[in-house]
Amino acid sequence: MQPVVKRILFYGILLVVWQVAVIVLEISPALLPAPTDVFTSLYTGFADLTLVYDLVASFRRLAIGLAIALALGLILGVFLAKSKTADETLGSLIIALQSVPSIVWLPLAIMWFGLNEAAVTFIIVLGATLVMTINMRTGLKNVPPLYIKAAQTMDYKGFSLFWKVMFPASIPYAVTGTRLAWAFAWRALMAGELLSTGPGLGYKLKFASDFGDMSLVIAIMMMIMVIGVIVDLLFFQRVEKSVMKKWGLDN
């Protein structure tokens, strides 16, 4: 049986069990709405375009924050790889900061930027930059010495050695860093939007929670999960596999 068929059957059975459990156990919709109620909320949200409006707002913030994070991560990663002093000082700080969840920065972000777009963008950038920096730095540090020695025998040195040998050799790590940065940015976006003034999926989730609309809460949670899986499976995993295959790293 194909994996896709197995997954469809699994989620179909899960939804049936969920629906039956809610009916048989007479669970209050305020605690756990039935799947039919959740899908009704989804249909209503897309029909009146409110969810589309929130989705577009979230993706706009994500695109801006992720683009800034990837650029910063790339520059910082190269800087750490090329400077031993920076690696031993700034590098240790970046590793320490990576262990701090993005949502922990929210109070400071609100104090620094106010309850606005800038605070949410700051959280996204912070969440994604660190993982991109570490991956880029690791990629450059792990370029096989044989490549460098071979290039040096062909008179590659300085910037030409970096641009034509070291940077291309670190591309697989950069792609992995981009994929991880997307995941971190997506989580950070949802955390930031929970305290934003909207619009956005995170803001809509908080709005629905405040008004006790659990059907809409679960509907948005499902959207967040589905979007995360779709983007990762259909884009980042394919790009990563393609790069790994091209660089001869695909097993």
Automatic annotation (TrEMBL):
Pfam families: BPD_transp_1. The keyword S-adenosyl-L-methionine does not apply. Keywords: Cell membrane, Membrane, Transmembrane, Transmembrane helix, Transport. It is found in: Cell membrane. Residues 55-235 form the ABC transmembrane type-1 domain. One of its GO terms (cellular component) is plasma membrane. GO terms for biological process: transmembrane transport. It comes from the Bacteria. The keyword Cell membrane applies. Gene3D superfamilies: MetI-like. CDD domains: TM_PBP2. The chain crosses the membrane at residues 9-32, 62-81, 93-113, 119-140, 161-185, 214-236. It is a multi-pass membrane protein. PANTHER family: ABC TRANSPORTER PERMEASE PROTEIN MJ0413-RELATED (PTHR30151:SF0), ALKANE SULFONATE ABC TRANSPORTER-RELATED, MEMBRANE SUBUNIT (PTHR30151). Belongs to the binding-protein-dependent transport system permease family. This is ABC transporter permease.
